[in-house]
Write a structure and sequence with these properties.
9 helices, seven-stranded parallel beta sheet, binds NADP nicotinamide-adenine-dinucleotide phosphate, alpha/beta
Length: 268
């Protein structure tokens, strides 16, 4: 059973749609004819995106400004989605922090778990019964190559991404015969455009240009992968090779190496 074709009542949902990968997914879904629900915290940015998409593709775009790290706001959105015909869920919103956990703001670390883990898990649980009963649906989860191994100085992020990577790939195994596709997007570095040298963040300065993959390409590849019920999408040959290598290299060897790299990102 393919991912459902666009229909008047069905909605494709994209979380973290206000920029970068989520924005790319929303645009690509609209280009494929899907009516959308887009969500993130910044309602003004979402509304501007919705206007552009409606102008260009003539689809319906509903805007939901929601802080997914807030359990009350998240529950409200989940309740709405559970009652609607959701054909595709792109559980994409996520944030990262860098530095030793002991030195980071604990409220920020907890919010990151709420967003990166429960912001995926709760939304999937909300839409899943409807998809299973219709025998059709697509769930694309934005995990990360960072979830493949321990990363000192990026510990909360790496652990949250290990959760969603494993959740996505496990869920896919359960739903193979239920008509619901589940694909994990586990990218290396992705961004819309490479900024000039003066505007680059430390992360951007430390990652060589050839490793960056565009959001547009990532969105297309991810949705094509979801259509084919691919287990995992890793855009870019270098990221793919690094991802495979990290899967076979003992964690005791990988951990101190990546920890030293990420120490620079935490300003340590
Ligand atoms: N880009 C990469 O290189 C890369 C690599 C590996 C994995 N990933 C994963 O791919 C996903 C998207 O990455 P990205 O680079 O596109 O992220 P990004 O540019 O940092 O954008 C994050 C998105 O999430 C939204 N968001 C942040 N906090 C939120 C909250 N509390 N509640 C609701 N929405 C929130 C943001 O919008 P508002 O600020 O408006 O809320 C924004 O739309 C993430 O899960 C990320 O971990 C990205």
């Amino acid at each position: 059973m393919p991912v459902p074709a666009p229909s008047a009542d069905a909605r494709a949902v994209v979380t973290g749609a206000s920029q970068n990968i989520g924005e790319g997914l929303a645009i690509e879904l609209a280009a494929r004819g899907h009516n959308l629900i887009v969500t993130a915290r910044r309602g003004d940015v979402l509304r501007a995106l919705a206007d552009r998409i409606i102008d260009q593709y003539g689809v319906v775009v509903e805007v939901r400004p929601v802080d997914l790290a807030d359990p009350t706001e998240r529950t409200k959105l989940c309740d709405e989605l559970a009652a609607r015909d959701i054909s595709i869920l792109c559980a994409n919103a996520g944030t990262a922090t860098f530095g030793p956990v002991a030195a980071l703001d604990s409220a920020g670390e907890k919010a990151q778990v709420q967003l990166n883990v429960l912001g995926v898990h709760d939304l999937v649980l909300a839409v899943l019964p409807g998809m299973v009963s219709r025998n059709a649906g697509g769930i694309l989860i934005s995990g990360s190559a960072a979830g493949n191994s321990p990363i000192p100085n990026n510990a909360t992020y790496a652990a949250t991404k290990a959760f969603v990577n494993t959740f996505s790939e496990s869920l896919r195994g359960e739903l193979k015969r239920a008509g619901v596709h589940v694909t994990l997007l586990a990218p290396g570095p992705v961004r819309e455009t490479l900024p000039n040298e003066h505007e680059q963040s430390l992360v951007e300065k430390l990652i060589p240009d050839f490793l960056w993959i565009s959001t547009e390409y990532t969105a297309k590849l991810s949705l094509d992968g979801l259509e084919r019920n691919k287990m995992r999408i890793v855009p870019g040959a270098t990221s793919k090779a690094m991802s495979v290598a990290s899967g076979y290299t003992p964690r005791a060897i990988v951990t101190p190496i990546v920890g030293a790299v990420y120490k620079k990102l935490g300003g340590g």
